[in-house]
Specification:
heterotrimer; A alpha+beta (205); B alpha+beta (458); C alpha+beta (213); A: 205 residues; alpha+beta; Alpha-Beta Plaits; 2 domains; globular; C: 213 residues; 5-stranded antiparallel beta sheet; 8 helices
């Protein structure tokens, strides 16, 4: 799988335009028209400093600044979707355990292909591998409960658990984050400061 | 004196008989570093598989086991083998492939995961580090110069004088006067307590951690043994070691203290805030304002504390070195089980002693610093976690954007924050005080495994 | 409609919670052992979440983003899986590489927290998943008005893409969107622009503290 290339970083604006044109020679009409519309924008962008490149998040997945993505697609066992939906509904779709983890920005469970497959996608801080062992000792039952619906899941305590996750994960090839340096912990800290500043302004106002 | 009672206190607990096969486990894994200490690290390359195995057969009888590790001993030798080394002595392919991938590729190839970049990048390492030539590491530890020399002559008899095994590097090390390291601190105080090791360390050291986190073949904290290399005789009672050599930039460190402290008292306080202990070893948590050298020197007391009364780092800054290396009961921002991220550290100081009055740039270039053996049944994963989460970043503990002040690789204009009332003190321009000069991942086999390896190929 | 659980007294809410928990236990009774055991062991811990889910702790509740998609507080999710035309994956991939996998153009939209592009099923499909502020309709409108060309360049490779400015675009997106069954957000009331303000305030405070420290 091609990783986000840093090979293209040194292309001049002109080269980039040429590459785009080649790419889109056999694209559908609507794409070619759009390309014409942005050619001058691309030329402009090339003179500015390029945005920071996306990097690997470790074993798999990609990362921008401090914020990484995890995108997993698993086949579900028979009856798995029903059980998992019921459990998620019980929690009102709200998984406050995420707060305890402390590195999760967001997380979604999406059933598709007639409930035969699940998309599990998160936005989180740091590297892929870092805290999985901690989940094993701190929240193993929570994970096994959710993952018991996943076909072939060996159990979170199994040495094969990480391999299973990596085997079902697909690295994103495009990844955008509005605030790549704003971790969950830093956000909490800034929120506290923000409150204190508002209070301070009230008092001196 | 080298018995554990003198160095760390604690006591031979009758109701905790050793659950580990101590006579299979290499001594260095459990035996504490003595005070004073003398020793040598030797790095070898195996050029001929048969010669390599012959070397192992010669040295195995002299490698000390951990039997009675809490008692005084003369000297102890240890042997570790890298993946390249296992290959060089002819370990069969299936066995090689049963080792974790992180170990197989070697420490230099894990530079991204270890955050070994900039000045710490493998391309800047001293040779032979970072090449595939580092095959076997032999270390000798002792509490006396004579015993050390005798142990070294035994070791030399095993590897010198026959072709097929080449000495790449030799590094002597030893305790500095008063047992200080290259930046002037008493070090090596905090160690994890290993459950079932037959000797109960003082309770204030923290609850004993399941042996399987440090030695292969026993249950770890999750209740199951960690993955073990195969066959069983090779993996059981063995462990992994991360070997890392740092050079201390003494001039830069002294300049930093002088830039941020006008009097000696102020400088010593800054030095204490960086580490979390005064240079005497006294922890800030127990001596928050004034040094207490007697406390620093007392193994029964100098590690007996927690952070329950200092969650905001007013005594020991949240980002200080010892708090990062062992957060204890600090509330962390990321869901963490601190007990699965501990390592046994055998640190060794090498080179000329620390000089508090040398502020020159020349002092940065002297070959002087610390060599560490980081020991854990999953040393590679743990070291990579520590580097990523606790050393190269501060998000986990509320020191956001800052790195470990002692072993972090600092960027230009980096800061170090000392929480304080009413306003925190943020020091700018902290530099890299310990530069990584090289390292490697080793496997430290059991006694039986060493014999088995020596007899490979019949 | 029955009393919302957030309005119930604590004992009342707990009774409802027990009922719901029993129902889930029944459903897991005929599932794999690993799930049943985990449910047993984890029940005490789940009660914390149950309390939050029942509106007893002031946590946000999962709602809808409007026409389709889930939402927590101000933050919504959009997840679409689209089939790609022949050669489409190759072009889209090369395009993403040229952009270095980065979409600074989304800054112009101002309401996008994150977005990812993932190729699925042997490059026959493209997954686009995003977290954004506010309502679904407004989000699609924003993309159409602020970065229409980027959208067209990327999605022209999807089968039947009508063009971001086409009147058929919203129906097309709905056809390919799958709402999340569960959606968690760490800071559900923190929009992209509020976060930007927070960062500025944070920087200003650090500068102030440096000066008076």
């Amino acid at each position: 799988m091609p990783t986000p290339a840093s090979t293209q970083q040194n292309l001049s604006g002109k080269d980039k335009i040429e590459r785009f044109k080649q790419l889109f020679a056999d694209a559908p009409e609507v794409g070619r028209k759009a390309l014409e519309n942005v050619l001058h924008e691309i030329a402009q962008d090339a003179t500015e400093t390029p945005p920071p490149p996306i990097e690997s998040a470790g074993r798999i997945g990609v990362r921008l600044g401090k914020v990484s993505e995890l995108t997993i697609i698993v086949p579900l066992v028979a009856g798995g979707a029903k059980r998992l939906r019921a459990f998620l509904r019980l929690l009102g779709g709200n998984l406050a355990r995420g707060d305890q983890v402390g590195t999760l920005h967001n997380m979604r469970f999406v059933f598709f292909d007639n409930d035969t497959r699940l998309l599990f996608a998160t936005t989180y801080d740091g590297d892929w591998d870092a805290y999985i062992d901690d989940f094993v000792t701190k929240i193993p039952d929570y994970l096994d409960l959710i993952d018991s619906a996943w076909d072939g899941w060996p159990g979170i305590r199994s040495p094969k658990a990480k391999d299973y996750l990596a085997a079902h994960q697909i690295s994103a090839e495009g990844w955008y984050v509005a605030h790549p340096d704003l971790t969950v912990a830093e956000t909490a800290r800034l929120k506290r400061i923000g409150k204190a500043v508002d209070k301070f302004l009230d008092e001196i106002g | 004196m080298s018995s554990v009672k003198e160095t760390v206190g604690g006591d031979l607990s009758k109701d905790a008989p050793p659950m580990l096969e101590l006579d299979e486990i290499q001594a260095v894994i459990l035996r504490q570093r003595p005070a004073p200490y003398f020793g040598t690290h030797v790095l070898l390359r195996v050029d001929d598989a048969r010669a390599g195995r012959e070397f192992l057969r010669r040295i195995s009888p002299h490698v000390d086991s951990a039997a009675g590790w809490w008692k005084p001993a003369d000297a102890w030798l240890s042997v570790g083998i890298s993946h390249a080394g296992l290959e060089a002595i002819g370990l069969p392919k299936e066995s090689l492939q049963s080792f974790p991938e992180t170990f197989r590729v070697g420490m230099a190839a894990r530079a991204r995961e270890l955050r070994d970049d900039g000045v710490n990048a493998p391309k800047n390492w001293e040779k032979p580090f970072g090449t595939a030539e580092v095959h076997i590491g032999v270390s000798a530890f002792s509490d006396s110069a004579d015993k050390w020399r005798r142990a070294m002559s035994i070791a030399r008899a095993a590897y010198e004088g026959f072709s097929g095994v080449k000495v790449l590097r030799t590094q002597d090390f030893g305790a500095q006067p008063g047992d200080r390291n290259s930046l002037g601190y008493k070090d090596g105080i905090d160690q994890p307590a290993v459950e079932g090791s037959g000797f109960a360390l003082p309770p204030a050291w923290g609850r004993p951690i399941k042996a399987g986190e440090f030695i292969l073949g026993y249950p770890g904290e999750a209740g199951v043994p960690l993955p073990m290399p195969q066959p069983d005789v090779l993996g059981r009672n063995g462990t992994f070691v991360g070997f890392r050599k740092y050079q201390s930039r003494v001039g830069a460190f002294n300049r930093f203290l002088h830039a941020n402290g006008g009097t000696e008292a102020e400088r010593e306080l800054v030095a204490a805030k960086l580490v979390g202990r005064w240079r005497s070893g006294a922890p800030l948590t127990l001596a928050p304002e004034v040094d207490d050298p007697k406390l620093g020197a007392d193994p029964q007391r100098n590690n007996a504390f927690d952070y329950s009364k200092d969650s905001r780092g007013r005594q020991a800054p949240l980002g200080c070195h010892i708090r990062r290396m062992n957060p204890r009961d600090t509330p962390l921002n990321h869901l963490t089980d601190v007990n699965i991220h501990r390592v046994i550290r055998r640190g060794s100081t090498y080179g000329p002693p620390y000089d508090p009055n040398d502020l020159s740039e020349k002092a940065d270039e002297v070959s002087r610093g610390a060599i560490f053996l980081f020991i854990s049944a999953k040393a590679m994963a743990t070291m990579e976690f520590l580097q990523q989460e606790w050393i190269d970043e501060g998000d986990f503990i509320g020191a956001n954007g800052e790195k470990d002040p002692i072993i972090g690789r600092q960027e230009e204009g980096a800061t170090f924050t000392i929480p304080k009332d009413p306003v925190r003190r943020r020091i700018r321009g902290i530099e890299t005080f310990n530069v990584l000069r090289g390292g490697e991942y080793f496997f430290m086999p059991s006694m039986s495994a060493l014999k088995w390896l020596g007899n490979l190929g019949g | 409609m029955a009393t919302p659980t957030s309005a119930m007294s604590r004992p009342q809410a707990e009774r409802v919670m027990e009922q719901k928990l029993r129902k889930v236990q029944e459903i897991f009774a005929d599932g794999p052992e690993i799930g049943r055991l985990a449910l047993e062991k984890g029940t005490a811990a789940f009660k914390q979440e149950l309390a939050a889910a029942m509106g007893q702790t002031g946590a946000t509740q999962q709602t809808t983003a409007g026409r389709i998609g889930a939402r927590q507080g101000s933050v919504s999710e959009l997840t679409i899986i689209v089939p790609l035309v022949a050669g489409g994956a190759k072009r889209t991939r090369a395009l993403l590489e040229l952009l270095e996998g980065n979409f600074q153009g989304a800054d112009a939209v101002g309401t996008v927290h994150d977005m990812r592009f993932v190729f699925l099923d042997n490059d026959t499909k493209l997954l686009f998943a995003t977290a954004y502020d506010g309502e679904w309709d407004a989000y699609i409108d924003d993309f159409a008005t602020k970065i229409p060309n980027t959208m067209d360049i990327v999605f022209c490779n999807a089968v039947g893409w009508p063009g971001i400015r086409s009147p058929a675009i919203k129906d097309w997106i709905v056809k390919h969107q799958i709402p999340a069954a569960a959606w968690y957000v760490a800071n559900p009331n923190l929009t992209v622009s509020k976060a930007r303000r927070l960062e500025r305030v944070g920087t200003a405070v650090e500068e102030l503290l440096d000066k008076i420290g």
